[in-house]
Amino acid sequence: MAKRMLKFVTHPQILPEKRSAEERRQDFGEIYQGFALSRAEEQSSRCSQCGIPFCSVHCPLGNDIPDWLKLTAENRLQEAYEISSATNTFPEICGRICPQDRLCEGNCVIQKDFKSVTIGAVERFITENAFENGWVEPRTPLHELGLSVGIVGSGPAGLACAERLRSRGYEVHVYERQDRVGGLLTYGIPSFKLEKHVVARRHKILEEQGIIFHLSTAIGEGDISLNDLRTRHNAVFLATGVYRSRAIDVPGANLSGVVDAIDFLMASNRRGYNEDPKEDTALHAKDRRVIVIGGGDTAMDCVRTSIRQGAKEVVCVYRRDRENMPGSRQEVYNAEEEGAQFEWLAAPEEFVGDAQGVKAVRVQKMRLSAPDMSGRRSIEGTGETTLLEADLVIRALGFEPENIPEIWNQPDLAVTQWGTLSVPPGGFQTSAPGVFAGGDIVRGASLVVWAIKDGRDAADAIHKSLTKDHMLEAAE
Ligand SMILES: Cc1cc2nc3c(=O)[nH]c(=O)nc-3n(C[C@H](O)[C@H](O)[C@H](O)COP(=O)(O)OP(=O)(O)OC[C@H]3O[C@@H](n4cnc5c(N)ncnc54)[C@H](O)[C@@H]3O)c2cc1C
Ligand code: SF4
Predict the structure, then answer these.
(1) N or C: which end of the chain has fewer CB within 10 A?
(2) Which of 395, 425, 453 is the last residue of a domain?
(3) Residue 117 is part of a domain; what is its CATH number?
(4) Which ligand gives the minimal distance to the CA of 157?
(5) Does the C-beta of 301 come closer than 6 Å to ligand 1?
(6) Furthest-apart CA pair in the chain: how many Å?
(7) Rounded CA gap, 361 and 351, in Å?
(8) Could you identify the atom of ligand 1 that is nearest to the CA of residue 222?
(9) Do the strands 435-437 and 399-400 form a parallel or antiparallel pair, or are they unpaired?
(10) Nearest CA to ligand 1 atom 17
(11) What domain range is 178 assigned to?
């Protein structure tokens, strides 16, 4: 064991520096700074090099975390990058936006008495350092296989699948209905969590690798049908994500000024490219009293975006309490630092307004019931209501899949009871021969790291299926 490790007793956990709340309210830049080399080495050396590393077990990609922490502590940074990038297609992105407190870091064994190793920040450091040193290169194939795969959707699932198949020698075409690649990395997640040049830098490397992108090209709904793709390519991977916002069925839900989180965030991200979305004023929080409904990370992204846009005040309304909200605690803390207010245990009953638009939200105070056998506490109304003034109400209650078989006219594409595409457990093959699927369109709204995992594993499944089919064809 290297002398440098097991320093958690002497070296305290130090998080990456965070910009002051006052400063970050003014812009959309990332709020955390990266580690400097000495800090990354020091923080890596806190790892206890467990025999069974629970951090790796709880990383969806099974990253060899203790190995790259040790290599970083020893200043063997190129090797650290090679090990880190062997299991993760986009480590610089996961290092920034994985909810580490629920995944790797949340399972670090030293955190019981000492705080966890700052795994995400070190992962980000390793990859940023690799970019600076020119070690991140496109993995061009040694030979071409003469087989092609069409990928629908350029979010993390589609891109991870594309990268892996291309490195094996497939001709890979990615079809994307938006004008930029990245899916929610580009148009969903705000820049204060993930600056867009980070995604664009990856896009460039993927292009250099030989992946062919067809942007502003919607499959199924537009000119090109899924059947067209099936005839063009040896296999198709569907990674179209989930975009239909969950509705809220209360009076006034159709008033102007009541908008969906995804529309609000997409407009904001487009503005970051100096574009001026058509609905600019309708989807802008400047000088407005904003109410965001929901308690997940998307709600927090809306709250914090509104603050940066210059909202008069921002209130997040959630029907449970702080302890029972689904979003990350850290994100709530960051939002509070930036000036957001929270109405816990409050559920909207009515959006109040007139022809000019929404003016207020009537909320009912809720209470939590006693825990049931499983420990879960349900909520019930108290009957007490309050009126909260608002000029803009953002619904952030989660996402559902669009009805793909119906809108794409593909009745043979089986879906689950939740509307996600149906694949066998742990598999990627849909009910349509030669058509595979992964990411949110299979899992439902999930995480970037799971989408990357699906993209990589689906590439392996497609490769297995095509090389088997190919060998059979050759034998015939
Ligand atoms: C606001 C918000 C914040 C989030 N923050 C985080 C976070 O901090 N950390 C985290 O881990 N996860 C976060 N997530 C979740 C994460 O972004 C998703 O789980 C992940 O992006 C899913 O990847 P995907 O590739 O399956 O789908 P997506 O990223 O949704 O990509 C799907 C792509 O398919 C394209 N597409 C759809 N239909 C068609 C079609 N017919 N033809 C062509 N292209 C099509 C879409 O335009 C899109 O580009 C967040 C999600 C949201 C909404
Ligand atoms: S990919 Fe995510 S869960 Fe895995 S080590 Fe990196 S930050 Fe942790």
Answers:
(1) C
(2) 395
(3) 1.10.1060.10
(4) 1
(5) yes
(6) 75
(7) 5
(8) 41
(9) unpaired
(10) 184
(11) 148-242+401-475
